[in-house]
Input
Amino acid sequence: MNNLFLLCSFSTFIYLIFKTKKSFHMLQQNWYNEDNRYLKWIFHNRKKVFLHYDLLILILFIFKLFLNNKALIILYSFFYIISSYLFLREVKNEQKKKPLVVTARIKRLSITLSIIYGFVFSYIYFTFNTDYTIGYLVTIGLLIYFNYFVVFCANIINKPIEKQVFYYYKRQAVKRLKNMNNLEVIGITGSYGKTSSKNILSDILNIKYNAFPTPKNFNTTYGLINTINNYLDKFSDIFIAEMGASAKGDIKELCNLVKPKYGILTKIGTAHLESFGSRENIQKGKFELIESLPSDGVAILNKDDEYQVSYKFKNDCKIIWIGIENKDADVIAENITMSNKGMSFDCKFKNDDKRYTFTTRLLGTANIYNILAGIALGYELGISIDELILGVKKVTSVEHRLELKKIGTLNIIDDSYNSNPVGSKMAVEVLGLMPGKKII
Output
């Protein structure tokens, strides 16, 4: 009977791997339950988590009335083989913004989870008693059914280890930054547009400097530590750090780590309103970047954003305002034209009567603001107007963010990464400016 149970364990093990991968993915997407994000996800998705077909394992109690133990174990095996197939088909049809990344942390979590499940399976195998077959099968079935919570427990068990790992790599990152004496650090934050602004600024600054932006969406404390330790080149002149936040204090923590001298605020909206609590908290949270700049630092702010204009500054650093609608800004974009080849606009600097024409392959008003921020900071860092014009012309679009594509005679605007109402509205406005027949 033990060997039959061992054989049946393989089918449950296969299903367990698939379900654990899903649990890990959700845990990772929810920042390893920081601010209870993972638990909130579970209870916001109760139907998906609790009303799953592996709950049907409880009908074994009914089959126990008609089948002997051997037949019951065989039926149990078939149940999980079918469940594996159904689960794979379900996952295949799901849309994923970002896939699971098998990091060192996920590997450590896998070891802890293997010990938990391994202990249960081993105990049952070595103390197997046919009188308790139904109890064994239901116990394992419930452990698999509550896999999301078992993963949650494994995450709690690993917290002391993760804390030590975090401090080790943080100390390493701080030491590495201290040894890069000539490195200038630029922080970029906002409710949206951070990644686009970061990549645009990098393309512009690389005309003259060796600028390095944080890769992908590495905008958390872990992401910046990883970037500094594993990606940042010792020959870099400028480090552009994208800074994400879901609550007050997040940006301050990132600033304490990298100590930016320059800061760019994209736009302040309602992203992460649930965790921030209010728009006022969002405003204060984003301005933690500006308040962290040294007195000789420079902040690039948007004069068309009411939440930036209304903020009461506590810092005496230099402020450079950019704008399109507000003509009182220091760097202004005028005469904006858009086509299926990109955009062009005139740029005017305060106290300079001349207008300079810039062209770009990018689309959308949001990108005009991002380009203006790059121009303003690039000019402040000593890049000439001619170099800035060339830099803006060379800016490449960010994948899936108002990315212009051409297939045959069709022009496609790929904004599939967008996930907030303001950004979606901007995308529709861009489409509205295009000639010919338009399809959303």
